[in-house]
Amino acid sequence: MIDFEFHSPTSLDEAFGLLDQYGDDARVMSGGTALVLMMKQRLAQPGHVIGLRRIPGLASVASDGNGAVRVGALCTQRQMETDPLIRQSLPLVADTYRKVATPRIRNMSTVGGGLVHGDPNQDPPPSLIALGASVVLSSKGGERIVPVEDLFIDYFETDVQPGEILTSVLIPQAPAGSGAVYLKFLPRTADDYATVSVAAIVDADESNNCRDVRIVLGASGVTPIRAKAAEDLLRQRPLTEENIRASAAAVIGEVDPLDDFRGSADYKRQMAEVFTRRAVTQSLAAGR
Amino acid sequence: MGKAVPLHDWAAISCHAMTRSITLGGFAKSGISQIREGWKMDHRIKFKVNGTDHDLEVPARRMLVDCLRYDLGLTGTKEGCSVGVCGACTVLVDGQMVASCITLAVTADGADITTVEGLAQDGKLHPVQQAFIDHGGFQCGICTPGQVIAAKALLDVNPDPTEEEIKDWMMGNLCRCTGYYGILESVKNAARVSQEAGR
User: Fold this and answer.
1) Residues A156 and A91 in one domain
2) Does A22 contact B at CB distance below 8 Å?
3) Which CATH number is A245's domain given?
4) Chain B interface, Cβ < 8 Å to A
5) Domain boundary among A172, A194, A220
6) How many angstroms separate the Cα of A265 from the Cα of each of A12, A153, A272, B119?
């Protein structure tokens, strides 16, 4: 393990000051499940680690009054799975976080830490993007609200700017009557990253026409990918098996997976189609 | 106040089949990894382990598993994969199970920690420990402290788990002797015995 200095600020202002002082040599840490591993493997070698856990008020879950839920960045992923408000108003989110790694890792890893890590194989981003969630990036200069859809720039690269700390996530509810699922294709072990994953939300009217739809894929490129062409093939159209098949087939042209030990890029493209079809079909069945 | 055990004893390194962290610690202190001048390498931390208060100085890079094993001599907690996957290093921090191999000791400052050494009370094994013995919940034993702590953590929040819930909870505790059926039986029976004792 590399040598470094650890700081435990007790306020955001103090944390911003430390970020200012140490600049590129500092890394922010919450649960540490990502950063400590990267430091052990020397993929990250910060001279200063700024732990956020002593800063009060960053681990709460609360309704914002308009049906959305504001989640503090330091909420653990396990909290997302068990919190009564999340389970009741955001069942897709609770179900998605339940599929992350193991209970022990979910006890340690946090919502904010998971997002700023920028790993395209993670589970929560597709579901958060499908719901239209945003993150609050705080800095000395104030706050910036960025849709999760725009947060990921490239492989392990996010829109978080120097001096900024992700402090909370705003998650709207899915439209009333819609159905939503997160499917994680796990051919190896139950605690692995997905080979491909798909979050889908389908809002259908009484005659099974698609009012609106979101299809977002994880582990299918260098960032999570919203499959807009596939969505367009369903929106305002009848949700027939034929249309769902055509939509899922369009996903192949939208993903750009990486070859790795979880499968070749070509295999993942095929699986992206299969799991998109299943996700849309299951979301449709889950609605109403 | 306790002081962290110095990790620059080359004799100790050469005569033991040491863990990777000890070896790296030795390299670091021997100057292979340079410590920048002016760095405050020692952090004073206080925490409770199995009911006993500890007050010690550790470098920021010290992992909780190393702190428990080498600074406090609590070698019941094992280090397996070193990357938070295998579950051998599982301990409870403020009642929550964590992977101590990827937990910085400094982040446990102020915490109440339970390791496998803290489960038996007055010479009597914890029901989970007794069940692992009675139902063959282990073969070689390296994963057992982590299995036992994870099972205790499960029964603390869910005293009467279903088989599926046990499998789901314990999936991050790997056993390479293929002892999973024994482990499942052990956890089920520990739950039953604890429930009966509580009645």
Assistant:
1) yes
2) no
3) 3.30.390.50
4) 21, 24-25, 28, 33, 35-36, 39-41, 43, 59-61, 63, 82-85, 87, 90, 96-99, 102-104, 106-107, 109, 150, 168-169, 171-172
5) A172
6) 42, 20, 10, 48
Q: Give a yes or no: residue A56 inside a domain.
A: no
- For residue A5, the SS3 value is strand
Q: Which domains does chain B have, with CATH numbers?
A: 43-118 (3.10.20.30), 127-197 (1.10.150.120)
Chain A residue closest in CA terms to B29: A3
Final residue of a structural domain among A172, A189, A224? A172
Helix axes A265-286, A241-251, angle to 10 degrees: 150
Residue A33 lies in a domain: yes
- ipTM score: 0.94
* CA distance, residue B65 to nearest chain A CA (Å): 13
Which tokens in the block code for residue B133? 């013995």
Residue B76 · residue B149 · CB < 8 Å: no
Maximum pairwise Cα distance, chain A? 63
Nearest to B84 among A49, A78, A105 (CB): A105
**pLDDT per residue of chain A (288 residues) written in tens, 0 to 9:** 888 999 999 999 999 999 999 999 999 999 999 999 999 999 999 999 999 999 999 999 999 988 899 999 999 999 999 999 999 999 999 999 999 999 999 999 999 999 999 999 999 999 999 999 999 999 999 999 999 999 999 999 999 999 999 999 999 999 999 999 999 999 888 889 999 999 999 999 999 999 999 999 999 999 999 999 999 999 999 999 999 999 999 999 999 999 999 999 999 999 999 999 999 999 999 997
Quick check: is A220 in a domain?
Answer: yes
The answer to whether the beta carbons of residues A181 and A98 sit under 8 Å apart is: no
* Residue-range definition of the domain harbouring residue A198: 179-287
Q: And the tokens for B142?
A: 């390296």
A101 touching B (Cβ < 8 Å): yes
